[in-house]
Amino acid sequence: MRISVFVGVSVDGFIARLNDGLDFLPENPEPHGFEEFYASVDALAMGRRTFEKVLTYGEWPYRDMRVVVLSSRSLDLPPGVEQMSGAPAEIAAKLEAAGVKHLYVDGGVTIQGFLRAGLIQRLIVTRVPVLIGEGIPLFGSLANDVKLRAVATKQYQSGLVQTEYVVETR
Description:
Elements: E1 2-10, E2 14-16, H1 34-40, E3 43-47, H2 48-55, E4 66-70, E5 81-84, H3 88-97, E6 102-106, H4 108-116, E7 122-128, E8 136-137, E9 148-155, E10 161-167
Parallel strand pairs: 1-6, 1-7, 3-4, 3-6, 4-5
Antiparallel strand pairs: 2-8, 7-10, 9-10
């Protein structure tokens, strides 16, 4: 199974404000590859905080996608959404055994956990040209370096800069 991240981040490395606000992200970004990326995955694993943020948008945007919310807390889930808890390696093994070929991982803590476990092969990071000073970091502490190889960088008219990285195997 392949595991990938597609995420927007401020230039100073934050995926959201401390209050989970995303107001620094462009409201209507020009096409920047998300639709193509999303079409390539067959499941999405997100953390509880990301799930709760998505619920504030109104209509559930992932109707045609297998979505797994990672939390040890009991949650009220939309139809078709499932919940799992456990170590990233256990979750990945369960999803792979269930036939998932390409998993999209979203949410700061979730991305960090899967990265620390050595499970992510690809990161697509879109930098928004803004410094927000503090917030929820994309990356956290690591026991060891995670070597990345940039395979593509694109600059968009809006100022977004997107880099795709492959995680080098240890």
